[in-house]
Amino acid sequence: MRVVRSVAAMQRIALDRRGKGSVGLVPTMGYLHAGHLQLVRAARKQSDYVVVSIFVNPIQFGPKEDFRRYPRDFARDRRLLQSAGVDVVFYPRVRDMYPEGFATFVEVERLGEGLCGKARPGHFRGVTTVVAKLLSVVLPDVAVFGAKDAQQAFVIRRMARDLGFHTRVIILPTVRERDGLAMSSRNVYLSPEQRAEAPALHRSLVLAQNLIRRGERRATIVKAAMRRLIQRESGGRIDYVEMVDTDELRPVKTIEGETLVALAVFFGKTRLIDNTTVKTPNPKL
Known about the structure:
Strand 8 (257-267) and strand 9 form a beta hairpin. This protein has helices at 7-17, 34-46, 74-83, 94-97, 116-119, 123-138, 150-162, 192-197, 200-213, 219-233, and strands at 2-4, 23-28, 49-54, 88-90, 142-146, 168-172, 237-245, 257-267, 270-280. The protein folds into two domains: 2-172, Rossmann fold, CATH 3.40.50.620; 185-276, 2-Layer Sandwich (Pantoate--beta-alanine Ligase, Chain: A,domain 2). Helix 6 packs across helix 7 (150-162) and helix 9 runs antiparallel to helix 10 (219-233). The mean pLDDT is 96. The strands form two sheets. It has a six-stranded parallel sheet with strand order 1-4-3-2-5-6, with helices on both faces. Strands 7-8-9 form a three-stranded antiparallel sheet, with helices on one face. It is of the alpha/beta class.
C-alpha cells in the first residue's frame, strides 16, 4: 500500500491508471471505524484499484466547530487500510489542497440549505468543494459514501451529476453498533452516560418507521412522537427532527413516496446525526 501526500503525485498515479482498470475512491476524514471499512470493501468489489483519502477538511467546519479537536490517528488508520487491501492512501496536506490564493468553491443550491445546512452555514459548500477536488485529482470511476451522512451524500450525488463528473456515486446503508447507534468518529467524544443514552436516536427512527408502516402519514405527528422519545430516554438537546423528500430535500407535510427521516441531537458539545429512508405508496401515481 502506498501513501501519497501531494496532489501532483496523486494526479500522476490517476493518469497512469487510465486504461488499466477501474478506480474506486472512498473519501474520509480519518479516525476510521467499521463503517468506513465497509465502504472500502464495497469500493474493492466495484473497482480494480482502491484509493482512500484521509483529509480533515478545514473549510467545512464553522468557526465554533471541532476542526482542531477532530479525532486523528493516522498510524492506526494506515494499519486498518493496509489490512483491508487498499492500494493508495491519499493523505494530502492542507496547503496542497488549498494553496495560497485558493478562491474557487463549489456549491449545490437548495439541497444544502435545510437540515444540517441550516445550523451549519457554509458546511456543504466546503464538502462539495473538497469532494470536487478529490474527484478531479483521483479520477475515480466510483466513489463510495455512507448513508449516515445522507444529506451530504445526496448533495454530492447531485453535484457529480450536474457537473458531469465521470464518477458513479454509491451510497451504502449506515453501519451501526449492536445497540443501534450509528457509527461515527465523533462517538469518541461521548461520556459513558451520553453513550448509553445516544441509541435513543435510532429508537426514535424505528418508532417513525413503525408509525408510518401502520398508516400514519402526517409528518407532524411522527416528528412529535420521535421528539418525545428522545426527550424521555436521553438528555440530548434536539437540533432538528425533520422529514424531507429525497430529491430536493424539501420538508414534507404528508409522508408519501420516498421520504428521508433525519435528525440531529447534541449530547453536550457533540452533535450526532442519524436518518432512515421510508417508502410509501404515492397516491398521485
